[in-house]
Amino acid sequence: MTEPTSIAISTAETLTPRRQRSLKGMAWRQFRRHQMALVGSVILGLLIFGAIFVSVLSPYDPTHSSLRERRDPPSLVHPMGTDTLGRDLMTRIFYGGRISLTIGLGATLLGVFIGILIGATAGYYGGKTDEVLMRLTDLFLSLPRIFLLIIMAILLREVEVPILKANGNMGGIILILGLLSWTGVARLVRGQFLSLKEKEFVEAARTIGATNWRIIIRHILPNSATPIIVAATLLVARNIISESGLSFLGFGVQPPTPTWGNMLNAAQDEMRKGNWWMAFFPGLMIFLTVISINYIGDGLRDALDPRKVK
Amino acid sequence: MVNYILRRLVYSIPLLILISVIVFFLISLAPGGPMAAFEENPNLTPEDIVRLEEEFGLNQHIYVRYWKWASRIIVGDWGYSNVTHKPVLQEIGERLPNTLQLMIVAFTITLLIAIPIGLYSALHQYSLFDHLATFLAFVGQAIPIFWFGLILIIVFNVWLNNPISPSHGFAWSHFTHCLDCKPLLPGGGMAPYGVDNPTLGQRIQHMILPVTMLAMFGMGTYTRYMRGQTLEVIYQDYIRTARAKGLSERLVVMRHAFKNALAPVVTIIALDLPGLFGGALFTETIFSWPGMGRLFYRSAQRGDYPLLMGIVMINAVLIIFFNLMADISYAYLDPRIRYD
Question: Which pLDDT band, with edges at 50, 70 and 90, does A310 fall under?
Fold first, then answer.
């Protein structure tokens, strides 16, 4: 009596697959193999955590100045030193992180949205539409970006729309960065659409009477999600650099709202006097964020590429 | 080939026109616009302002104004700076050579470092050198160049000294501790303060830091790209054929692998050029380099719109010109292109 049962159990064991391999699961396994991407995720995670909880974690107020503690080098009390007004630099850096990360993310969302819209239209409809939209993309690619960003940022100062003005022009900066960061995604999406629209599943959808936009959004877009996700990830890093560059020149987010860029701007003169920490730490944050995001993007590219799964 | 170049030239005309339209309309949105300077002048009555507006043609429709502006641009009349009242073309012409000098030197150095490293990395894939180079390329890509510039100033201008002290002569310790030494490298300008005709040595000294900063731009990207492209070609059949027929490894790499890997790299580099102008803007601003980027920065601060417009247009022309050069070199490197 006992023997058959044990046999049944052992058969059941050999028959059930040892591990369910979903697409997500495989991607995650692959992503974990990419050590630098993991390190990047941890660093970025810590930065985001710090930016969110800085108001709870830090004993200092980001705008509170202290005459007695002006230009203090890094110490146990102020791990990253203080600035010209005696404000704690580390606290300001994490508050600045909120702004810088929000701008990077916001501008990327806007850029990806425009890019998908233009790329999908061009790739799906083809012909003259494609021609016109791709010429437009070429035009934007050959524009001197930072110069246009500066001109748009000056114009922005005169626009009296509260949502753009909030947080030292944060909304406005998101808008102009977004408007100038869609080209890469547009080209990519167009390429995907050009090849995918000939596939059988699109044919099938059309046969059952799906509208063009339904095919674009429900059928083709999800199938080209992988490269878009990778491109979007890398775009966040690019936008963070653009924002900090613009703020560094004084045309981006306006003080007293701190961002890594405008903290570097304020540090320019100080650094020539030898007060290195005011320039070193904000820039280090930009560097760490960007390199983390780039490694995560690299890891995602490997993880989401089915050819690389072993 | 001539045919190809001509065709590319014709393509670039509508591009230039479109860029000029965008820039013109953006700037005509500007607050105050060209009349701002006059409106603040207490000696002018509102009637005077209206009369001036008519004289300048500012009361006309924007399309008419664009047409007039564009037709003047073509004959070389680019207007006057709002601030210095000098002709825009003269202001730009005085700075353009400085910018080009900085860019060309920096860019040459970037390529001389990035391309051999990328090539060597790919030929020794997964070696220690390759791992190190790939890591450094990632670092290079992530460093904001304006921060890199500031670090260069801190280290080579603020911290380190010229070890030869006027009073105590040379000593190794003077690098870090010295009271009357000069900084190791100058941290701004093209020449020592007040010197009109700097010697070649002084000029080179003043170029080291800005060129280093600007050379950082694209270094990581081009290294990784060159590595990737070399890996693409190195396993091709024609490489095996070249080896099989007994060519030396040197010839296989230089004649077959290198040239084929280089062609796509040229394209990516040309696409990156607008960014290099941006990099020059940061470099010139940080190092007080009297070039076009710094002029743009100052004009943006002062709201000097005629100059802003002129600089963007010159940039666009240069970018299109360099893109054309890239296309030509691509056609040279990859003959298939010419027959399209």
Answer: very low
